[in-house]
Amino acid sequence: MRNIKIIEVQSEIGAGTRGASLGIDAIKIAALDFMSSFFVNFPSEIVQTENRLLYEPVASPYAKRIQGVYTMYDRVSKAVCDTIKSGIFPLVLAGDHSTAGGTIAGIKMAKPKSRLGVIWIDAHADLHSPYTSPSGNMHGMPLSTALGEDNVESQMHNPDPQTVEYWNKLKNIGKIQPKIGYEDLVYIALRDIEKEEEHIIKKNNIKVISVQEVRRKGVENVVRQTFMHLSNCDDIYVTFDVDSLDSSISRGTGTPVSNGLKEREAEDLLASFMQNHKICCFEVAEVNPTLDKENMMAEIAFHILQRSVNILLLN
Q1: Which structural domain range is residue 129 located in?
Q2: What's the pTM value of the predicted model, to 2 decimals?
């Protein structure tokens, strides 16, 4: 049986829409509404945020609030690293997805010799850099920091020297770069990507499993295929961005996209993934209750979370 600790990252400085920092409390309220003792059952660590930066002018248009994101990477990576080193499974609940780069860094800092696989369940590739990002929002960049990817071949902008300095610091956090290989990354439900990201995916032959493929092959086959692809990895990190769900149910997130997963498909996928002993960290991100009706997104996220954790506890 695994010991689990919840790491709460109520940060939203990497998003373009406000409100994701409230997602964790919204999930807790969903748990209360379902009369669940879920959040009483596990110890919890709250990572201090830099959300005050939302009230300050943006210094770097191509990597908004990158200094604050660097601080978050530092804090999140330390929390995740310490948790793993003490033999406990980190369950990360995050606001916006930018801090996932810090989660990956923390896993690598705890296990520098381990080959890390990543299952990225998300409508978006999150493969931008300050050189390519159309929005400058840092939640579109965490995988590039983990891969050490600038994508200068698709360069659109010339970021200022301070932005470049912080970007290089982000890639090098934990003094390990790159933290993952392109061959050790699997996307599920990816469907809203820019040409700059597509360039990286095609060039490096990154594995992408579409929503249609999940439906055609079935969850069990997709899970088997994913683990086959990552069979050379020692540890596997799963991150679930709620916008991987179809926009009909994922209204409570900053960047909803149509033709996504159904609630049951996401729940079955994650429950199946959690049965594997290589899973070393699980993360849920981007619930935004300010965009929602009746806290629906948080309730769905809670169902998925509860079932996944119940399976983790059995393994």
Answers
A1: 4-314
A2: 0.99
